Amino acid sequence: MENKLELLSPARDADIGIEAIKHGADAVYIGGPAFGARAGAANSVSDIARLVEFAHCFHAKIFVAFNTIFHDSEIEEARKLSWQLYDAGVDALIMQDMGLLELDMPPLQFHASTQCDIRTPEKAKFLQDVGFSQVVLAREMSLPEIRQTYALLDPSTRIEYFIHGALCVAFSGQCNISFAHTGRSANRGECSQACRLPYTLADHEGRIVAYDKHLLSMKDNDQSGNLRALVEAGVRSFKIEGRYKDMAYVKNATAHYRQLLDDIIAEQPQYSRDSSGVTRHLFVPQPEKTFNRSSTDYFTNGRQHDIGAFDTPKFSGEAIGRITKLGPDWFEIDGVTEDGTVITLHNGDGVSYQPSTNKGANKLVGMRINVVEGKRLFPNEMATDLKVGQTIYRNRDQAFERQLEKDSAERRIGVSVSLYEVSGELQLTLTDSDGISATVAHAGVVEFARDAEKALATLQGNLSKFGNTDFEVTEVHIAAPYFVPASAVNALRREATAALVQARVDQRPRLVRAAPVEPPVPYPSKQLDFLANVFNTPARNFYKKHGVELIADAYEAGTEHGDVSLMITKHCLRYSFNLCPKEAKDWKLKGVKAEPMTLINGNEKLKLRFDCKACEMHVVGKIKPGMKIQLHSS
């Protein structure tokens, strides 16, 4: 497993998961009927079983997101559901609630969710030692920190890392703003995305630093340029975010990273892909064409400026030029990007712009283009605030979307075919690219054809017809010019194919649960505050077993009433606006304490406190009266 590279794709539903496999995913993660950290992306056990059946044909794996925290009243239902998922054939559960480790769980692998807040090598090591086989590191971890983690873990423990998609501004699992303000718990899959709202930022004296900006909204993650460095650092599972995203996004992102990882594997043969088959894409992947908020590689290469999507949390699209003329029901653009690329537009394209008036600042406006006549565009409804010189973006490329609406990839497993005689019996052996073989025999006397050349050509043609199966021929070996009727050859090939499919089922590698270290290893700390998300008795027992002496309730328990850190983030607004004492270019700020600041959204005010030693920002507030969680009922 150590040198197998896994491309892990998201799926909102089983059909999207199947397309992810077709487009090159080695594994897919999907939500079950309940208890996933994306409540709006639930799927029935029967649908997951359908996805499992398809994925396992290619020895690809299915992981189910089981990563909420559980109330005591839900624990038994969660345990029963885990066994149903096991019976459906899933390969692993992605979890954050340590209470599950105290239950009678099925023999599935456990993967530590991003909600576990794994931002230190020590935390990753602890999770490995209590039985997790795969750990997804915090998106904020840098390459040196990943290397340190890899050096501390056993080779059998796989490091997973997000390489694409939306970024949660908080350390995952360390945000309670949604629950405090709306009663919707992010730890239970119901985040209200307060981080995507517009805020005004004021300093400690009330002076406005930024007005009506999306100050907690991050650009989207894109590690395309860092994949080789991530492999070298020890990452073995490359995760695409997006269980709420549509099929076009998943196809496009999966194809993009499949091609990049395949290039690395071709250059460095010590690595291999973690499933079977070869994928051929019938389009050119362009991740900027499907939903993104512009891109950043976040903290992978250390702290840097310009990681925020402060102007809009929406998908503005690619810049396609500036307005040059305006008419009553049309406008013209120059159609040239900043790098000189000439843009071709199509009827049905979607475009967007940001109004230049203060009243509409940061409020992205979209239009659909009904007719394109050269550089003249006729929208479905002409906007009144367009101005010459304004930048226009395309957020829907109709031609590209149409490609993705069709079959846009195919995946086949290479197979070698051998026809030969053994003890007077004709035998056909199929051997796939994983080295798995199946042999069937032809009943009847072995005869040889008079026209050897014609017989060999006919046999080769018939033995190569794998049609709509998952296989394609890579080579055919025929020991002699046998005379076999075409109908018999076809029947023999179909029988051998069915036998190979069964052999692949019988020999499919199964993920084995990692055994926890005995005696139980100590947790890195003796006490846990509410940010540890302990919400049930089994979780409390788990931490006690591992030496924790003081365990606070999860925030959802409602026992924290005063001001607390509702969000902890590595993103720092003092740094973003050149007010960081550590980085200050103005000598007057050198050594000055980072005074608190305030985020304002309407009547909501959140205080910002800065932990400069840890290089973190804390968003501080308190719970509103009457906020209670909605318990799951079966």
Percent in strands:
25-35%
Name the helicity range: 10-25%
Which strand order do you get reading across the main beta sheet? 1-2-3-4-5-6-7-11
Structural class: alpha/beta
How many domains make up the 3D coordinates? Answer: 5
Explain the overall architecture.
The chain is α/β, with parallel strands linked by helices and 634 residues long. The protein folds into 5 domains: 4-167 and 220-275 and 283-293, TIM Barrel (Alpha-Beta Barrel), CATH 3.20.20; 169-218 and 561-634, no CATH class; 318-405, Thrombin, subunit H (Beta Barrel), CATH 2.40.10; 413-506, no CATH class; 523-555, no CATH class. Helix 1 packs parallel to helix 8 (247-267) and helix 5 runs parallel beside helix 7 (227-233). The chain is globular, with a radius of gyration of 28 Å. It starts with a strand and ends in a 13-residue tail after the last strand. The mean pLDDT is 95.
List keywords for this structure.
single chain; 634 residues; alpha/beta; TIM Barrel; Thrombin, subunit H; 8-stranded parallel barrel; 6-stranded antiparallel β-sheet; 26% strand; globular
Put the structure in a nutshell:
By secondary structure, this protein is of the alpha/beta class. It is globular and about 100 Å long.
